[in-house]
Structures are given as C-alpha cells and as structure tokens.
Amino acid sequence: MSLIFLEQLRSICGQAHVLAEGDLSAWEVDWRKRSFGKALAVVRPGNTDEVAQVVKACLAARVSLVPQGGNTGLVVGSTPDDSGTQVVLSLQRLRAVRQIDAANLTITVEAGCVLQHLQEAALQAGFLFPLSLAAEGSCTIGGNLATNAGGTQVLRYGNARDLCLGLEVVTAAGEVWHGLSGLRKDNTGYDLRDLYIGSEGTLGVITAATLKLYPLPAARLTAWAAVASMDEAVALLGLAQQHLGASLTGFEVMGQFALSLVVKHFAQLKVPFHESAAFGVLLECSDQESETHARALFERLLEAALENGCVSDAVVAESLAQAKQLWHVRESIPLAQVEEGLNIKHDISVPVSRIPEFVRDTDALLQKAIPGVRLVNFGHLGDGNLHYNVQAPAGNDAAAFMHEREDEVNTLVFDAVQRFGGSISAEHGVGTLKVSKLEHHKSPVALSLMRAIKTALDPHNLMNTGKLLRR
Amino acid sequence: MSLIFLEQLRSICGQAHVLAEGDLSAWEVDWRKRSFGKALAVVRPGNTDEVAQVVKACLAARVSLVPQGGNTGLVVGSTPDDSGTQVVLSLQRLRAVRQIDAANLTITVEAGCVLQHLQEAALQAGFLFPLSLAAEGSCTIGGNLATNAGGTQVLRYGNARDLCLGLEVVTAAGEVWHGLSGLRKDNTGYDLRDLYIGSEGTLGVITAATLKLYPLPAARLTAWAAVASMDEAVALLGLAQQHLGASLTGFEVMGQFALSLVVKHFAQLKVPFHESAAFGVLLECSDQESETHARALFERLLEAALENGCVSDAVVAESLAQAKQLWHVRESIPLAQVEEGLNIKHDISVPVSRIPEFVRDTDALLQKAIPGVRLVNFGHLGDGNLHYNVQAPAGNDAAAFMHEREDEVNTLVFDAVQRFGGSISAEHGVGTLKVSKLEHHKSPVALSLMRAIKTALDPHNLMNTGKLLRR
C-alpha cells in the first residue's frame, strides 16, 4: 500500500517533490536537536490545490501528516515521530507575496514565505511588517501563524495572531477555506481565523495569510537603563507607557548573570552598567515624527525615571550603529548560554504586576533545592514574558545537571507559574515537548473543550497527530 | 414539568429572580422592535455559580437558553423566539468590577457591567478603556464581547476581541471555564477566548472578562475636513495614518445627504461645509504629550492634505465644547434618519482600498433599480466599515418602501459587498436577522466548520438556539 500511496503523492506534486529516500534529517530532526524522527516521506506541494490533494490522499489512506515551515520551532512541533508512518508536508515551495494593498495597509503572502522576505517586501513598498524574532532569517510566516509567534515587538503590535486579518486554510477534510480577508471588521460567525492560528497544524494547514502593515516610523531610538531590581523595572515600564504610549515598541529586561555571560563569552561586546546594576533594560521608541522628537521624548522619560529613582543610570544610543550594538547584546544572551553549556530553558509569562514577586519566590525556591544554581533571566517584560533559564551551579557538569535535574526544575518552575496565574508556554507553543505538562497545568474544562474541537475538525486525528494534544 | 422546572430555577436564583408572569417585554422585544418574542421565563442569576446551575438545569430539561445583556443589539440576537419555550438568561445582576491591576494595565469585570460604568471605573483609576459606541449607556460588556462590538475607536484599539485578554465562561455543559487571564502572551492550545468572543451566546455564556487598559492620552483633538469624493477621503486617511500613526484614534466619514438630514431635523447643530462638500470627515487625534503637540501634528497633516488637494477645507476644534459639538453631529445621523422615516440599514465592510469603487458602483445600481433613491452613507472609514443605509425617494411613504423593497435592496447591496470581498455584517453580528443571508454569502466550507464547532460544544443545541446558525 505504501508504494501505491507514494505514487499517488508523486502524481500530485511531481516526482522531484516527494522524498522518501536518502538523508531527510533536515525535515526529521527538530531545531534544537532534541527529537530524531523518521518520516514515511517528505512532500513538497507547489500550490494550495496540491496541498489539498495531498491532505485528501492522506485522509483516504489514513496517514498522519506533519505540516512544516522553516522547522525552527523550539517545542518539537513540526517534525515526525520515529514510527516512519507520518508524512512531512513542507510548505516551503508556497512562498509568493501575492498582493500588497497600500491603501488597505495589507499584504497577502503564502505560508512558506520566510519572515525576513516578508519584512523586506513590506519595506520595499514603504511599510512596516512588525513581527520580529531571532529565527526570522529562516522561519516562515505559516509557522509563525501556526504557533502564534511573539518576539520583540509584541508590546506595541501584538503577537502573530494580532497581525493577521485573514487566512487560506486546507482543512483536515482536504477542502480549501478561502478566508483571505483584508477586513478589519467582520462579525459573521465564529472566529475560525484565530482558531487555526496557534493550533500548531493540528486542525488544518495554513497555506496563505493576509497581514496588517503599518506606516514606517520616521525614527527609531534605543536606550539602555540600569535598574536595581525587578520592581524598579516594572516601575520603569509604567513610566515608559505613560510617556511614550504607542511609541514604546520594545522593553527587554536582562538579569546581571545573563549579561555577565555575554561579557565572558563575547568580550568584544560592550555591556553598559553590567557591573553595577542587577538588571539592564533595553527600551525602544518608534517615532512617527523625527529623531529629534524621539530623543526629546526619551530624555524626558529618563529624567523622570532618574528623579523617581527607578533608574540609577541610563544611556541613549547616539547612532544607528550604537543602537544595533545594544540590541546585539540582548540577542547574544542565548548564544552566550550555549557557550556556557546546556541549561534548562523556560518560556513563561505571568501578569506584569506579579513578575517581581514571582522572580523573588522562584529564585529562592530554586536556590533552596539546588544551592548555587544560576539563573539566566531575561525577556520581554512589557508582555510579562520571561525566558527564565536555569544553569548548573558553577563548576558542575552542565549535561549531567540537565539530565538529572530537568524534570525537578521544570516542575518547580511550572508550579510557581501556575500559582502566579501564568502560562507555561508564552510564545513557543506546546508541540510534543510540553504535551504532558499541558495536561497537568491546563484546566480540565479547557482541555475537554480543546479535545472536542479537535475531534470535530479532525475526526480521524491525522493532522499533526500527537502534537499539542496527546494522541 | 414546566412548573417543576420553574421551581428548580427559583431554588437556584431565588423567588424574586425568576420572572414568568406579567409584562416581560423589556426582555422579550429587541431594541429596534423588530421581533416580539415570548419567554418561558426570565432568569436573573446573581453570580457565576448560579449561571452554571441554571445552564445545567436547562440542559437536564432540554430547555433552550437565550443569554441577554443590555438588550441593545441590532440583529435580534438576545431575545427569545415566540414559542414560549425559551428561557432568557439575563446577566444584568453580574455587574461587579472585580479587579483593576494598574501595573498590568488590566481590569476584570463581570458580564453585566454596563460599558459606560466600565469606562468610568477605568477613568477613576487613571486609565482609558477605549471601547466606545452609541449604546454605551445601557449595553453590557458581556454583550459587547458576545458580539465582538466595534464602535468609533477600532482604528486604533481594535474591536472588543482585541481588547480582551481572558474570559470566564459557563460552557454549554454547565461547567465553568476559568480563563480570566491577564497575560499578553499565552500559547498553550486553541484560542478558546476568541472562539467565545463573537459567538453570540451560541456556545456558552460569558460571565466575566479581563480587559486591556491604556494610559490616558494627555490631549484629544478633533478636526473636520471637507472632501470632494470617497477617493479623496481614502487619500486623506492614508496621509493621516502616515502623519499621526497610532495617535489617529478616529476617522469617520459622512455623506452630504446624511449631513443634510442632520441640518434639516436638528437646526441647532452647526454642520461645517455641508453645502459645499460631498463628504465630511471627522478626525480625532489622541496625544500622549500635550494639546500643543497634538495641534501642531494636526496642522501639519491638514496643511499637507490641502496641498495634496484631497481636502478642500478644514477646521480644528478650538475647545472641548467645539469638539463635542462635531462628534454630536456625527452621532445625530441615526436620530436624523429616524426623523426622516424608516430606512433600510446596512452594516457592511469592504477593504478600505475598494470603498470608493464599491460606493460608486452600488450607488449606480441602486439608482437604476429605484430612481431617486437616497443614500444615507456614513461610517468608520478607517476600518472599512460603512453604515450604507437606503432611504425611500423623496415624497415616498417610508414604511411602504421598507415593506416592498427591503429584500430587493438587501440582495443588491449584499451581492455587491460579496463582489468586493466584503462582509455583510461588520460590527453588529448575525443574530436571527441575518441567519439566512449568512447562509447565502458565507463560504460553505466556513459554514460547515462553524456547524461542526457548534455541534461539538453544544451537542443538544440549547445555547441561543437559532441565532447565528439555523436551528
């Protein structure tokens, strides 16, 4: 049956686009190399109609499908299991920018379009597409939408979901839902768009999207502030929101230990105030008027913050090069962690108001459980989203620590998150990595609603089987 | 059985809060008095637990439930049918403001809280809750969320859905989903929140919500511009977005005939440029800095617009009183229409870029079908949302026109909307009024997905039966 099935896929997509032999690890192994899957085949349809035919063929043969974009996800959500029975459906050939509508401030692109290409296409037309994250050079917009990606501009522009007006989707039945809408208001029934967004390919395959564009800011300025505690960082955030309103487009916080790793492993980078301050805050202001205006706004804010006492020192980048350097420090934290050795990563959120207490409490609990443990704490404070990573005590073997303590540390951190009304996955999603954690921490009512929806829209459980919800 | 059932409801909510006799028309007749229903009873639970018990009692007795807030909807979505078998579940006693979290910029309120009270509670705490619409003095936030209400600030702050971070919902099974989250990022599964929002009470009952707050603007300024055509209005919108960015919080367009009705019926109101201009545009700018700054921004924009030629004349309100007067003109259009006599109302959206062509084409088609027909065209141009209302030719009897031509006019307008990629219900929802129109204009794939979701989450079809989807 397998050979006939593969022939069928080949007749849909063409011989060259059904891969069933040779090294398929680029599609089978996840980004962080935590899972080594085995695919029945990798199929690369060239358009929406071919995607629909592939889904129908899989449905008829009862073969499970794993949609995949740039395969840059962090929760093992887009690679097959090791059974050799799943088909990887790669969207990478659907990469066209279909339309830019300047007066409507929208862009319509196919799922396989790389995020950076999308940003560039918007820029070329004179607009901003604000979604921005570390993997933007290789992740695809389809994957961004399937996982409701976050990133560094959420504070102002929202998550991927907030940037999307309409979708084209191949349903689990292999039908095409033509929901590509450029409408900002449309109250004609259930919100199918937001249901498919963030469903991680378990309800259907996103093949294209209509997304919001924004006018380009006239100027963008970056500042770095030294703060003495997480409480002061939250106080600074409130002041910044008051002074800058919607011009505040970035607010990243970085703990002293995280910054010390950057200093240690990337000596060429200058990290402001890293010896004196418990936390560094990176602020970004996008201004519709001019650089002069943005600078005046920033100076007024920082004066108020120094006076109020929540900031002990601050610097505003004098040039684009300086601004890039400051962002480079922020972006180098994950790489510095790699240099330092494996650590236990978390992508959590709690209400902004509760972050100081959460960090105090959880730091103390971890120190008690593992004396000398080191916390690489940084993240998007404006969204309540911390990458609260746990590194072995100095001198300990990182791999052994990871192996022996990961479960214990995860349980401790996730239990704390739940006590503080937070989320165990703020922006990375669930994939297979967090399926059992989700069952533990999500409310049973919510889980049973989710299962009912899954069964209703994918009755044979063939769409990204085992991701997000257990098989 | 009916008596036993009513006794059960009384034992849940108390004698005084189950109404089954006397004049119940306040709950049975819709806002526009288009439907005269008959309820088995009106039940007014006092808290979430009582709501859950009522839903369970109705489920056990297989009695259909109609959730109701302020009963100000425009599509007959919150009143019972005339069978005398449905229970109206009024949320009006659940009206507490549960919490304001200043550092997190959130407010948590119960469903029955009147929108204006919510705005006032936010203001008292020093924040803005931006949802604003004509019925705000009596509509409730639960109804706003159930219908994903729009209004005049959508351009900047989005629809009700965009303002909501979390919900508490009584499901169709009578269980409570505690989804009240103050999180701006949470990727742990399907977006149940956005599914309940806009589902018009057909999947469950929203009992409370956590909503976004914004810093209060330092100043708000209003301007009125005269434009020669819808093309010029769209050009002005583009300029305004470029100059003002997120400070542009209102952009309303009004056709000359709509304004002439205001002049005719409310002689005390001064309508700028109404004799010379084909359209008036009301612009609002909310500024984080100062009135001086806002005024400078507005002046620069209007100078650019006069130079560009898309505006022939403009005035900026010199005082709050003048600004209120300009908004009063805009808000008087519906009342002026009432004075002029019944008309056929539409609440449509098309992509902003296509509005000029849509209006030209549809005006011509209507004139051809009904020579002398008059168009009361006004709306939220920034969102592509027009209230494109059709009034009888001068001298014709309005009621007779309505009776004879409503179907024909609706069909003509909705067919045009569909050709232009628009929506037949931009912000009012579907209710019972547009159920059959929705079946005609919505894609069969989307409808079958919606039906599958409805069956999965409300298998006995008891939640607001017959609304949004046919019975």
Account of the 3D structure:
2 copies of one chain form a homodimer. With 471 residues, chain A is α+β, with helices and mostly antiparallel strands. Chain A is built from 15 helices and 18 strands. The first copy, chain A, has helices spanning 2-13, 25-28, 48-61, 115-124, 141-146, 154-157, 192-196, 230-244, 256-265, 291-308, 320-340, 355-369, 398-419, 435-441, 444-457, and strands spanning 18-19, 39-43, 65-68, 86-90, 97-101, 106-110, 127-128, 164-171, 176-179, 204-212, 214-215, 219-227, 248-255, 279-287, 313-316, 348-349, 374-380, 385-391. In chain A, a hairpin with a 4-residue loop joins strand 17 and strand 18 (385-391). In chain A, helix 1 (2-13) packs antiparallel against helix 3 (48-61) and helix 9 crosses helix 11 (320-340). The longest helix of chain A has 22 residues, at 398-419. Chain A starts with a helix and ends in a 14-residue tail after the last helix. The mean pLDDT of chain A is 96. At the A-B interface, strand 9, helix 7, strand 11, helix 8 and helix 15 of A face strand 9, helix 7, strand 11, helix 8 and helix 15 of B.
Average pLDDT confidence of chain A is 96
Q: What oligomeric state best describes the polypeptide chains here?
A: homodimer
Can you summarize the main beta sheet of chain A?
7 strands, antiparallel
Could you tell me the number of beta strands of chain A? Answer: 18
What portion of residues of chain A belong to β-strands? Answer: 15-25%
Radius of gyration of chain A: 23 Å
